[in-house]
Amino acid sequence: MNELDNKFINPFNQDKDFAGCSIFGMMSLEGKRFSSEDPIKAISNMHDRSNGLGGGFAVYGIYPDFKDYYALHIMYLSKDAKEKTDRVLASCFNIIYDEEMQTKAAKVVDPPLLWRYFVEPKKRRSPNLPEDECVIQAVMRINTETGKAFVFSSGKDMGVFKGVGYPEDIAEYFCLEDYYGYLWSCHGRFPTNTPGWWGGAHPFNILDWTVVHNGELSSYGINRRYLEMYGYKCTLQTDTEVLAYAVDLLMRRQRLPIEVVSQILAAPFWSEIDSAEPKRCNVLRALRQTYGSLLMNGPFSVIVAHHGEMIGLTDRVKLRPLIAATRGNMLYLSSEEAAIRLVSPQLDKLWAPRGGEPVIGRVGDKKIVGSAVKVEEPQ
Amino acid sequence: MIAKEIILAKLDSRFLPHVTFNDQICQVNAEGLHYRDLNSLLRTLDSHGVEKVELHSVCGQRYIGTDLKTGMAIEIYGTPGNDLAAFMNGPYITVYGNAQDCVANTMNEGKVVVHGRAGDITCYGMRGGKVFIRDDIGARAGIHMKEYMDKKPYLVVGGTAMDFLGEYMAGGVLLVLGLNLKGDEPHKARFVGTGMHAGVIYVRGNVAHMGKEVKMVDVEKSDMLTIEGLVREFCGYFKTDFEEILSKKFMKIVPYSHRPYGRIYAY
After folding, report:
1. Spatial separation of the C-alpha atoms in residues A54 and B66, rounded to whole Å
2. Deepest in the core among A217, A222, A262, A316, taking most CB within 10 A?
3. Predicted TM-score of the model (pTM)
4. What's A16-76+94-122+153-369's CATH class?
């Protein structure tokens, strides 16, 4: 574009791209691990959807040598915080191995000190408490105690890598080319009303649950207060955090299937509930009465993942984009079709899920759950 | 005749590896081109009288065709990005592949033919021209579409639509054929025509659920003329059988009132 062209087309020299976040998920239905090449290529094709204020990846099946231990990724905004946190960790866990996370120079903003620990909870401290609960308690304690230390990944055989920068720069910073996983979920951030800081980047994680999110949860306040009753403390200053904890509460602790959980998070309208057949109507009514405070209000499309499962969901009136596709044993979820086509030009099936209806891929199950408005391949 | 040497000489040097001329057709390899560059290139070609451009390996570049004012023909191979033909004012775009969200955003004139599906908010605020989609479209197609005097936008969809079809529609014509629906299966779209106060939606078959501002009525003779014209054009692009499409009953969705919220705000 020459100077004159630019003056004519862009008289006010506006360099701002108006966009939303980008989300991308890719999963091998056989549980076969693959490199970061395709996920990074796909998410960076949606570069213009984010603005450099956050990017991140969640990778499953990443630490096969340490798969029996919880892998904690912790960011420290000060040296003191690390000393204090190390004492907390030592009191709760047997630390099997710890190291500074491998990083290299990249276009990221103000990286904190990043540390990785492989730990197992100390049984004798609270013999009756399940291990998962010990970890959650420790995570909440660390996140609230110093204000300068945040656990951003706490699952087994999985890891979250995130920070302030474009997703491709974050990938470079964390040397993601060295990692392999069977499920990758990726995010490029365009923060609208919360700060762009390292803790606020997506994915949000608790245990092996991760969430990447495009949209805005206007119900954050009420969701947060509800989750506090169950011991979840929101410290990361971003709406998506509540979704990660809500999914952990409903799916892991209360063992509700995702088909039910999606009716809680993206509940149908009362008018639809009223017109449903009596049995279904009663169930939907009970869910809204019980879990009204976990209704996620506002526009969203999300990819929720945990070991063996990847779930795509949008809000009930479909205010954010989500495209699903399959090719062989791969399931793709993306904000834009182009990102999928870039890594897999030929697809077996491609569809746009309806608002509020989840797409679910499970390892070992070639059948994808989700109401597929089937689309023929373009010639 | 276009003097391709003159055009090549005027192009920024970074575009040269991407551009070749084949007879009168300009072929562009869009791989790795940022959308701003691609659209800048299209503007240059347009202003030098190029009549036909083929874009190959398109992958997510936004706003293709925006701001162009002549009748240039653009053929796109690949997946164009969001806001295809946004604010476009004349060109004829053909997509061999699927289109993403917001096709024909505020388009003023021209034509878009998609040999595949299109995403959400297709024809958002469209003011004129025609859009033909072979397969399905996403949610909120035709939202805020409008018409004024001789400007009237048309959207024809071969497949079915998702929720909020024709939301807040203020003019223009939507025609949804549902060619991939079996038997008497209705269009699954809910809240069709919510907030609609002008324009018309024609559907072949029935719809699952409509907004409270609209009613479904039988088509009249004048409606059938419009429908037949659009279907004939559709069949021309996608090689479908005209008689077979016309053999099923069409219905018309129109608003009850041209000022549905007049009472709320009026004094």
Report:
1. 29
2. A217
3. 0.92
4. alpha beta
